[in-house]
Amino acid sequence: METMAGEAKLDFESIKAIILEHFQVEDALMEFNVPTFYLKQNQETKEPFLKVLKKLDEMNLIAFMRKSDGRVFIKVLPKPPSKPIDVRVNWLLLILTICTTFATGYILSASLAQIGGPINPIVGGALFTISIMAIFGLHEIGHKIAARKEGVDATPPYFIPGPPPVGGIFGIGTFGAIILQRTLPPNKDALFDIGLSGPIVSFIMATIISAVGSLIAVPAEPTEATMLPAPLMMLVIGNILGWLGVAPQAPPGKALYMHPVEFAGWVGMLITSLNLLPAAMLDGGHIARSVLGDRARSVLTFLSILILVLSDFWLMALFVLFMSMQKHPGPLDDVSGLSRGRKALAALLVAVFILTFPILR
Question: Which of 108, 174, 221, 244 yields a CA-CA distance of 20 to 30 A from 149?
Answer without folding.
Answer: 174
